[in-house]
Amino acid sequence: xxxxxxxxxxxxxxxxxxxxxxxxxxxxxxxxxxxxxxxxxxxxxxxxxxxxxxxxxxxxxxxxxxxxxxxxxxxxxxxxxxxxxxxxxxxxxxxxxx
Length: 98
What we know:
The chain has 98 residues and is mainly α.
């Protein structure tokens, strides 16, 4: 099997998909859940805009903070732990807003 590039690729997909697919689905639910918790049916556009702005701010800020501050100071393992805790906290806040 090591001789065939495509078989190795297929094996890696079959090996990682059961781990990554549930997480990807959970993260995919987060954005619509955040919109549903904030958006009022009369002003859906405003709610979507607000969630999109905060999502963008969090993405840019997290990338900058992670790459330039946390990884150099804390190391990769602790940075990933902090990121997981921040994600859990954000999910709890979104669920609390419902």
